[in-house]
Every structure is written in C-alpha cells, then in structure tokens.
Amino acid sequence: MKTVLVTGATSGIGKATAELLARQGNRIIICGRRAEVLESLKTEWSAFAEIFILKFDVRNLEEVENAINSLPETWKNIDVLINNAGNAHGLEPLLAGNTEDWDSMIDGNVKGLLYVSKTIIPGMKKRNAGHIINISSVAARQTYINGVVYCATKKAVDVISEGMRLELTEFGVRVTNIQPGAVETDFSLVRFKGDNERAATVYAGYEALKAEDIADAIAYCVNAPKHVTVSDMTIYPSAQSEPRTIYRK
C-alpha cells in the first residue's frame, strides 16, 4: 500500500487516476481547488480506501506549502506524487494571444508542478524512496499552430522530468513523464472557455482516449517492480498518428 498525492484530482485524468489507485488499495491524497467536489469524492471513495483531501491552487506557492505541510504525521510520507494539475486556455496565433491565458498556463503547467514537487521531494530524498509522475502532452513533441504557449509549457514539463531524473535517481526516487495524445475530458471545454460546440469538434469523427486509459498507464508505472523505471510514455488514440494529425471518419 502506497500513499499517493494527486493534484488536479477533481476531474479528468487526475480523478480517474486517483480512483483507480484507491481501488487498488492505496491511500490517496486528493488535491484541487473545488472543496465541494473534493468532499464528494472523499465520501464516495472512503467506502473502499483511505482518502485525505487538500484544497489549494498549485499556482500559489504559499497555498501549496501550507496545505502540504498541514498533513497529519500519518499522511506526511508521500510515496507517489502525480503532478496532474494543469490547463490549456485559448487557441489562437501568438500575436492574438491573451496574456492572462499565457500566465495561467505557465503558472499552472510549469510553476505549479515545480511548487508541489519542491515541497514533497525533500521527504522522498530523506527516505531514499519515492516516485514522481508528471503529466506532459504530445504537444511537447511537436509544436502546433495557435498553441505555441501551451506547447512550450508541456515541453518544459518534459525538460523538468528529465532534470528530476538526473538529480533524484541516486536517491532512489523514480521519475516518469507521461505524454497523452487526444483525451476526451473537459480539456477542450476549458480551452474554449465553455464553448461546448467548439469543444465537441475536437473529438468528432474518431474514438479519443478516455481519462481511464491514461489512469491505466499511470497505474502500470506506479506498480512496476522497484528496479523498473518507466522514464517516458507516449499514448495516442489509434486514430492519431502524431500531435497534429487525427484521422476522422
């Protein structure tokens, strides 16, 4: 049984991963900004697992540190950190980009990951054990038009994952970087600021990945033997050949 902390656990990949790992017998710390959703998930999942909730915004260092440092002693030894929280906002040329959207993506996808990791890594190093899983994207592999800033943030996640592995392997800490392709979650709804019609077109004409597919992949990495590190994993739906190309019926 492991103690697992999942950021962005109230929806999508984070929620699916937290639930799967809970059902596999682990203790789960679910993190997010929506207290009512966190409480609801705790009530539901407590029927089969130990669940602890932390409400904070990964973009706020003070909130991150205060929340994680407030964990009871019995929850402080985090075995697995899943840096899932992140966002995409807007899909337009760089010169037409909204700088508030840029800040949100950089603060959430890059700085938030760093803030949470910096708070948890010391404990892992001290225990000479741990596993960090960072959720990147195939957008890190190939920049696409109108998505420059989002792609840049996910490329940063790849680089940070590599750097973490270089710095932490000698301390027994495994680092895994996951690059999902097109996954049908609220991702596009958030990117297009609630425009359901536009979001639906992203997943039209083919079978996209589901959040549960990525959760399965993460669980495989978490459950791999101690001597095995899955360093990088790229996952596409069968209809997608590379980040920019999806074959639709």
Automatic annotation (TrEMBL):
Domain of life, source organism: Bacteria
Protein keywords: Oxidoreductase
UniProt cross-references to InterPro entries, sorted A to Z: NAD(P)-bd_dom_sf, Sc_DH/Rdtase_CS, SDR_fam
MF terms in GO: oxidoreductase activity, acting on the CH-OH group of donors, NAD or NADP as acceptor
One Pfam short name: adh_short
Entry's family note: Belongs to the short-chain dehydrogenases/reductases (SDR) family.
Protein name in the entry: Short-chain alcohol dehydrogenase
Organism expressing this protein natively: Chryseobacterium populi
Taxonomic lineage of the native organism: Bacteria, Pseudomonadati, Bacteroidota, Flavobacteriia, Flavobacteriales
